[in-house]
Records
---
Amino acid sequence: MVSARFARLSESQDVDRYSTDGINSLLRLLTAIPGRNTAEVNLHKGILIFCETSSIDNPINKQGKCSMGKKQDLSAEFSNALEQWAEDALEGIGIFKNRYPDFEKLKEKAIEQLRSVYSDKTIDMFLTSKDNRRMDCPDGFARITGPCGDTMEIFLKVDSGVIVDSSFQTDGCSPSKACGGMVAQMAKGKSIGKIKELTAQDVLDVLGGLPEESKHCALLAVDTLKEAVEDIVKREKS
Ligand code: FES
């Protein structure tokens, strides 16, 4: 049943309707299914090419060289978020709990696969960050669209030169959500001067690394944060 569905997707090549996250999820699920060592994805163009040969490795693992953060004991919130992510991802490609007998096993494999690509810190951040929100009347705001086509927005509140609240929004990939959440978290309690010293590497270090092809997401988040800080400075001068 699963193979038939994937074959249909493969034939149609109609993947424009999938968001980057959707394609990411699909890739992870495809690579999680035994005997389907499958896919190659160009995330930026949204093109999915199925390679039906067992000799092709998971390209994320192949190119990733991700320096994984230490696996953590899972908190209840993180565990629930992971389970929910896996269910949504499976149901997003038409594999429903009540109709697929090995649903639980497939869910476990999808989670295992996700955790082999990203550190737990990264996953936790993109699944559960409470800073993924708009802010009314921020003191500083910036929006940058990166070369990948994804847009990051950062909102800041400042008091006596110290960031007292920060949040982000992005239409980008899961790593960009993790990076947005992390810079929002790192900005809080810091002075404007300290934020200017922040680098993409600092963000990658706290996240426990990202696959090579996702490292630019950290740069996009840091650049946007710094521009939001510049916005505060400009407003204070005017
Ligand atoms: Fe564009 Fe992550 S791929 S920000």
Note: The pocket of FE2/S2 (inorganic) cluster is lined by residues 146, 148, 150, 172-173, 175-176, 214, 217, 220 (CB under 6 Å).
---
Amino acid sequence: MTFRWYGKDDKISLKHISQIPGINGVVTSLMHINVGEVWKLEELLELKKNVNSYNLNIEVIESVNVHEDIKLGLPLKKKYIENYKTTLRNLSKIGIKTVCYNFMPIFDWTRTDLEKPLKDGSTVLSFDNETLKNTDANQLFDIIKKGSKDIIIPGWEIDRLSAIEKLFKQYENVSEEDLWANLKHFLEEIIPVAKECGINMAIHPDDPPFSIFGLPRIITCKESLNRLVKLVDDSHNGITLCSGSLGPNKSNDIPSIIRHFGAMGRIHFAHIRNIKQISNKSFHESSHLSSDGSLDLYEIVKAYIDIGFKEHVRPDHGRMIWDEKGMPGYGLYDRALGIAYLNGLYEAITKENK
Ligand code: CS2
Ligand code: MN
């Protein structure tokens, strides 16, 4: 069991994280490195030392982001792929075995509201497709900036905003098939290095799992994940199975997807969280409890236990509760409650099985 920690600037301390029952380590990254640049060994060693001093390990790196030039297949991809390889080699030197990344054009996860109030006064991240239709990318950035109270949210860095018009132009002629070809090229370059370093690469599904603003999005369902694992048919080419990202698409049967890719040994990392489907393409996040959302967390945890899953798990996002102030989706309290619940499901199901 792990917890995402955003480094020194995270309001949540390693001390508090280490007090969550059943925690082994953190999922983290070097937040200040611009996408495409090399992560230096000295900085990684320092990060590791800091985390270790709280009796925690760095279990997973999330994410080493992929430069847009790689996704677009532009000439500079060569340089950025070489940098990516160097970063992987440096990560292996501090003992990292799992690296999460995503291949979403321009935006990482996308929401139309970061503070949607629920009846109980908690707030959650939500996505309303009607709102998105009437919002342009600049307005969306304003929503994110307002909701985040100017805390820099990964995936929503200010430098992305300044480049947004250019990026949209660059993606105008990039089809889904082009994006697949660029992903294949990236994996053909990266996976041999990952293999040599003993690192499992774990792609995070697109969140939400469908196209937004007409941009291609390709990692959205079982079929696309099947295609992904075959692009480079090597066990180091695997998946971050995120229930909350695949969940908004009602035809994604998460437990069956877990069983399918688990049997293939291709799930290298698990994000477990719940969402409430409102209508086709609209949803909001919820507490982890099955009855609060649309996903059955019992069936999800059971599927992981049945496949003998031995990789790392983390709760993903949480609600903001108990007047906590901080990065929307990444507060301490509700994610810690999520862990307690997942621990309970895990203990109950494993004991039942015996
Ligand atoms: C999150 C992502 O949307 C989600 O479910 O887990 O922010 C995730 O961390 C990144 O997309 C991974 O690259
Ligand atoms: Mn996730």
Note: The chain has a mean pLDDT of 95.
